[in-house]
């Protein structure tokens, strides 16, 4: 029996998004933005915190259970190689698509000089500190990424959602250790983590019941932060950067339709439409929260229950993806870098654009887990092609909206790679749509 349309989770989240948008606009026009920030936006923050709260225990429990049920270290290493390989390829394709679209449309040429000067003066102070943070990332040794995966203290690593890879490493280590001891000694501990995993999944279900209200609060806060008490100023900003915003969104859409469709044709028989239908609550939450880590519990639940990916794969592929796979963010880096160069009257040659591909791919891994990683990654890319870092001020005004879009694509990419890896390992089951 099908649910009434408004009782389906994805429709409830969409309704929350729309009502949050309307409330934010009314609050800006009516002059009660402070009320929204003080009494409505906090509920959105609580919702995100609830999702982040269960991310680490979910990864730890599900991955330990998955590894021990796999009972094959060779298979685990093979799956890891596939995961990293596909992530790198899809990231490079995303950057290439972004460069293609931005070079064809050339949005930087539509930005008037007076608008450019106004944006530079208005947002200049917002990039202070990003240059220094980017330099710290560049100063790290080539092997520091691997060093950072191994924590000195597990409890310290588990206390920060930015250390997902460290939690994954500990879970893998513990899972492998449990495989090496007699089953009569490991059984009780495995059962504990199995029970913990089931409890966390139930908690995810409970949290999702308040998702529409959390999304409403988040969206209202986003609009108020963007517009303040002057909605006209926000509209003027969007108008000035319309072509830039359009190119980023177009590039993200093309990546969704071309790359992931091709991925499924190569590695599974799944239809892209069915895939989107199965994970749409996760995509909508990613859009609302602008956080892959916060959405991770929901992404894992939808990929396992609805898409049919075995827990052995999802618990390994998705946490890694939430940390290092940034298809949407990398595409945005490419478009933003070329847009800034165009607006400043600089022509980028083929060599510089190839540099963007390589730098953005490496930066997506090197800057993982760093606060404000998107802007820091962009600083690294601009420095590599010798474009003034101050040009970032041109795009900061609409960055919050585009951050929502690219996070949704990042999450979709994680789930798509999980499908591909699961199919190649024979661990992809039947799809199930529980919203029907």
UniProtKB/TrEMBL annotation:
Name the record gives this protein: Dicarboxylate/amino acid:cation symporter
Taxonomy of the source species: Bacteria, Pseudomonadati, Balneolota, Balneolia, Balneolales
Biological process terms in GO annotation: dicarboxylic acid transport; L-alpha-amino acid transmembrane transport
Alphabetical list of SUPFAM superfamilies matching this protein: Proton glutamate symport protein
Cell compartments where the protein resides: Cell membrane
Organism whose genome encodes this protein: Fodinibius salipaludis
Superkingdom assignment: Bacteria
Gene Ontology, cellular component aspect: plasma membrane
Membrane topology (UniProt): Multi-pass membrane protein
GO molecular function: symporter activity
Entry keyword set: Cell membrane, Glycoprotein, Membrane, Symport, Transmembrane, Transmembrane helix, Transport
Transmembrane segments: 12-33, 53-74, 86-105, 164-181, 210-228, 240-263
Keyword field contains Transmembrane: yes
Pfam families assigned to the protein according to its UniProt record, in alphabetical order: SDF
């Amino acid at each position: 029996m099908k649910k009434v349309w408004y009782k389906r989770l994805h429709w409830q989240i969409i309704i929350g998004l729309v009502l949050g948008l309307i409330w934010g606009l009314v609050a800006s026009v009516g002059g009660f933005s402070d009320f929204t920030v003080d009494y409505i936006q906090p509920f959105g923050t609580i919702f995100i915190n609830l999702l982040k709260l269960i991310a680490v225990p979910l990864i730890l429990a599900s991955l330990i259970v998955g590894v021990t049920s796999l009972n094959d270290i060779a298979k685990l290493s093979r799956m890891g190689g596939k995961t990293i390989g596909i992530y790198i390829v899809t990231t490079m394709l995303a950057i290439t698509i972004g460069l293609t679209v931005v070079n064809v449309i050339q949005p930087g040429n539509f930005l008037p000089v007076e608008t450019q000067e106004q944006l530079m003066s208005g947002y200049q102070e917002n990039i202070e500190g990003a240059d220094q943070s980017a330099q710290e990332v560049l100063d790290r040794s080539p092997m520091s990424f691997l060093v950072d995966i191994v924590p000195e203290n597990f409890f310290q690593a588990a206390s920060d959602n930015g250390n997902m890879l460290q939690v994954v490493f500990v879970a893998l280590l513990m899972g492998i250790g449990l495989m090496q001891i007699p089953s009569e000694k490991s059984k009780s501990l495995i059962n504990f983590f199995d029970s913990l995993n089931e409890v966390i999944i139930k908690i995810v279900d409970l949290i999702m019941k308040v998702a529409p209200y959390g999304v409403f609060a988040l969206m209202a806060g986003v609009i108020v932060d963007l517009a303040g008490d002057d909605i006209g100023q926000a509209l003027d900003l969007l108008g000035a950067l319309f072509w830039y915003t359009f190119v980023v969104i177009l590039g993200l859409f093309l990546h969704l339709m071309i790359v992931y469709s091709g991925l499924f044709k190569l590695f599974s028989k799944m239809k892209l439409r069915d895939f989107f239908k199965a994970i749409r609550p996760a995509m909508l939450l990613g859009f609302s929260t602008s956080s892959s880590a916060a959405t991770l519990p929901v992404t894992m639940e939808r990929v396992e229950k609805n898409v049919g990916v075995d827990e052995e794969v999802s618990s390994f592929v998705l946490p890694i993806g939430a940390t290092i796979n940034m298809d949407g963010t990398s595409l945005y880096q490419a478009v933003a870098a070329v847009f800034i160069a165009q607006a400043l009257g600089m022509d980028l040659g083929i060599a510089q654009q190839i540099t963007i591909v390589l730098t953005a791919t490496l930066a997506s891994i090197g800057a993982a887990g760093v606060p404000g990683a998107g802007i820091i990654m962009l600083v690294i890319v601009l420095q590599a092609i010798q474009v003034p870092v101050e040009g970032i001020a041109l795009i900061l005004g609409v960055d919050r909206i585009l951050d929502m879009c690219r996070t949704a694509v990042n999450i979709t990419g994680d789930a798509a790679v999980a499908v591909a890896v699961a199919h190649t390992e024979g661990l992809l089951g039947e799809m199930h749509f529980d919203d029907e």
